[in-house]
């Protein structure tokens, strides 16, 4: 009975290992609960600008040319392409682990057996046997030569290796989405800086025009002073206003320099003049500015797609980590020539082959595997929250930029009306001043109001363009 019970011990151990492993191998996935609103702030457009290519969205060909140049030379773009290649290589590595690992082997060694060892006595006794010939006698020390192929193959019984491949594939797709995200971001940055540069050009033109007007006003008040119709105080007030406007000119000049340098940086250049022909005041907005429905964001925004793929990868990692608790079957076959004499290595009698199968299961390292599993589950939750945050952030961005286009456009219309009224007021003030019915402070105030309104008009038009560009980015456009 005792002998019979002992025979069941190995089988019992195997079942215990399987049971303890299966206890931890339970399907667990992290899924996002999405409750997106049906529309963006009540706007139920069914079309989206995200599908419009860059060349069609931006009517300014100078801008399109800058974007094309940046996509070829921007350092971040080139680096991100290499990250895609890294992810591709990692995918191939994990896919290869599903197949047997075969390697060529050429081994040689020597071993001296003691006279009172099992091999030493056995070899001595073998050499005395009449059943062997001279080539089969075992020397002491014993050389050992092997030339052939060796292999190791972990049989993917529980899907561990396949899930690692799935995780690598998801991260490869995430890296591609990361590249698309960079293209979208870079496009938006270049367009934003381009329109900023055009707005600064408009501000510079406004300042130069007003410097000319203020110069003429200063000359008039100087003549009036000589004729006794104005005082030195009026002259100094007009001169102070002129100097203020000239000072603003240099501030704008510095902003133009910095914006050009930023564009050159994005283009991968050290320096260079940025070509731009049109004024932002007459620049045309894209014909179509529609965000579409919120669910389209999930398909078009590269950052949301990247976060989604990372969540898929983490779920695959969890399954792979759980499979680590289960027994692993490894096969190690070999084939080749093996001999203890170099001259007989390629003799047909030296041909050999074999296969060894081993079943291993974790026992004392289960705590480490459990810690790794808990870490992976926690990381998957981080990926889930990141995914949900990305969607929430994307929705808010679209809503803000849609409102920005509408509100800035209304502000621009009112600013135009305000500027028209201020120009009329300045004209009236000049006429009244010439006939002595208005003082110089009213002229100065009217001139400053017109200058400020013209500068604000250019800035408001810039904000409209920036909102349009940011909307294009926030719905996932710019990379197709």
TrEMBL record:
UniProt cross-references to InterPro entries, sorted A to Z: MdtP/NodT-like, OMP_efflux
Record-level Gene Ontology MF annotations: efflux transmembrane transporter activity
One Pfam family hit: OEP
Location relative to the cell: Cell membrane
Gene3D superfamilies: Outer membrane efflux proteins (OEP) (1.20.1600.10)
Similarity comment text for this entry: Belongs to the outer membrane factor (OMF) (TC 1.B.17) family.
Protein's UniProt name: TolC family protein
Organism listed in the record: Mucilaginibacter pallidiroseus
């Amino acid at each position: 009975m005792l002998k019979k019970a002992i025979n069941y011990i190995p089988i019992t151990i195997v079942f215990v290992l399987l049971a303890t492993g299966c206890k931890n191998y339970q399907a667990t996935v992290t899924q996002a609960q999405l409750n997106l609103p049906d529309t963006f702030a009540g706007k139920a457009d069914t079309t989206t600008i995200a599908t419009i290519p860059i060349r069609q969205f931006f009517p300014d060909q100078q801008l399109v040319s800058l974007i094309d140049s940046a996509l070829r030379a921007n350092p971040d773009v080139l680096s991100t392409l290499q990250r895609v290649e890294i992810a591709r290589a990692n995918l191939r590595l994990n896919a290869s682990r599903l197949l047997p690992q075969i390697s060529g082997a050429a081994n040689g060694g020597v071993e001296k057996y003691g006279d009172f060892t099992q091999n030493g006595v056995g070899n001595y006794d073998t050499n005395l046997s009449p059943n062997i010939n001279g080539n089969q006698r075992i020397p002491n020390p014993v050389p050992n030569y092997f030339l052939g192929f060796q292999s190791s193959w972990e049989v993917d019984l529980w899907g561990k290796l396949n899930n690692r491949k799935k995780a690598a594939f998801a991260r490869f797709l995430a890296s591609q989405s990361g590249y698309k995200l960079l293209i979208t971001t870079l496009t938006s940055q270049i367009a934003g800086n381009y329109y900023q540069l055009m707005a600064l050009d408009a501000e510079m033109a406004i300042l130069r025009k007003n410097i000319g007007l203020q110069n003429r006003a200063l000359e008039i008040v100087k003549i009036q002073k000589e004729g006794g119709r104005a005082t030195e105080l009026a002259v100094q007030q007009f001169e102070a206003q002129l100097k203020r406007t000239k000072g603003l000119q240099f501030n704008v000049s510095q902003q133009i320099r910095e914006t050009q340098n930023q564009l050159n940086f994005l283009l991968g250049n050290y320096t260079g003049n940025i070509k731009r022909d049109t004024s932002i005041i007459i620049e045309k907005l894209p014909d179509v500015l529609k965000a579409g429905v919120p669910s389209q964001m999930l398909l078009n925004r590269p950052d949301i797609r990247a976060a989604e793929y990372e969540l898929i990868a983490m779920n695959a990692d969890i399954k792979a980590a759980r499979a680590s608790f289960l027994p692993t079957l490894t096969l190690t076959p070999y084939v080749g020539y093996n001999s203890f004499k170099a001259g007989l290595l390629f003799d047909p009698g030296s041909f050999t082959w074999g296969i060894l199968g081993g079943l291993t299961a974790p026992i004392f390292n289960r705590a480490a595997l459990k810690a790794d599993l808990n870490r992976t589950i926690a990381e998957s939750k981080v990926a889930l929250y990141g995914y949900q945050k990305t969607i929430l952030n994307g929705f808010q961005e679209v809503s803000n930029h849609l409102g920005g286009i509408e509100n800035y456009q209304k502000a621009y219309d009112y600013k135009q009306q305000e500027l028209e009224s201020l120009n009329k007021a300045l004209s009236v003030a000049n006429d009244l001043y010439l006939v002595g019915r208005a003082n110089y402070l009213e002229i100065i105030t009217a001139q400053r109001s017109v200058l400020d309104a013209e500068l604000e008009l250019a800035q408001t038009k810039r904000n409209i363009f920036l909102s349009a560009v940011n909307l294009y980015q926030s719905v996932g456009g710019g990379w197709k």
